[in-house]
Amino acid sequence: MKLAVITVSDRAAKGLYEDRSGPAIVAILKAKVPGALTESEIVPDGIDSLLDAFARHNDADWIITTGGTGPSPRDQTPEATTHYCDRMLPGIAEYLRNSSLSQTPYAVFSRGVAGMRGTQFIVNFPGSVEAAKFCTDLLLQFLDHGIAMAQGKGH
């Protein structure tokens, strides 16, 4: 299994802010998905920078983004993801958002989406460290099953 984690943040991309969400996601994936190859990078907010990052990770089974999902004018991660995907998977985004409400009422501001391009899955997480860790733990149960379904192996 190949996993990619993309942190979307203007400040982190410029080195003005330490990315903690991306490394937290990677740490959980490495601990709980033995044998998975995990890559990560930081890109600035914006549709083009994220589309370029998606292209660099086009061989990953799952791409997880963190950041850029809120209502700020620069938050365009859902728009980039929607543009990149062939098909949307609203159930994953709804599950993450709904479950996150048990942790914070501010989850209502997350505009994260999930979808597929071919057999690849793309899921948007919020940018806060706690939300990123929480969503990673929720998503773990779907990784293997999603790949099997995308490859036509069924349930």
Tell me briefly what this model is.
The chain is of the alpha/beta class and 155 residues long. The protein has helices at residues 10-13, 21-32, 47-56, 77-84, 90-100, 129-139, 143-150; strands spanning 2-8, 37-43, 62-66, 87-88, 114-117, 120-125.
How do the helices and strands line up, and which of them pair or pack?
Elements: E1 2-8, H1 10-13, H2 21-32, E2 37-43, H3 47-56, E3 62-66, H4 77-84, E4 87-88, H5 90-100, E5 114-117, E6 120-125, H6 129-139, H7 143-150
Parallel strand pairs: 1-2, 1-3, 3-6
Antiparallel strand pairs: 4-5, 5-6
Helix pairs in contact: 2-6, 3-4, 5-6
Task: Explain what you see.
With 155 residues, the chain is α/β, with parallel strands linked by helices. It has a single domain, classed as MoaB/Mog-like domain (Molybdenum Cofactor Biosythetic Enzyme, Chain A, 3-Layer(aba) Sandwich). Helices cover 41% and strands 20% of the residues. It has helices at residues 10-13, 21-32, 47-56, 77-84, 90-100, 129-139, 143-150; strands at 2-8, 37-43, 62-66, 87-88, 114-117, 120-125. Strands 2-1-3-6-5-4 form a six-stranded mixed sheet, with helices on both faces. α2 (21-32) runs parallel beside α6 (129-139) and α3 crosses α4. The chain starts with a strand and ends in a 5-residue tail after the last helix.
